[in-house]
Amino acid sequence: MKSTSEPVENFQQLYDDIKKYVELQADFIRVEFVEKLTILISSFLIIMLVVILAMAALFYMFFSLAYLLEPLVGSMAISFSIISALYVLLIMLLFAFRKGLIINPIVRFLSKLFLTKTKN
Question: What is the pTM of this model?
Answer without folding.
Answer: 0.69
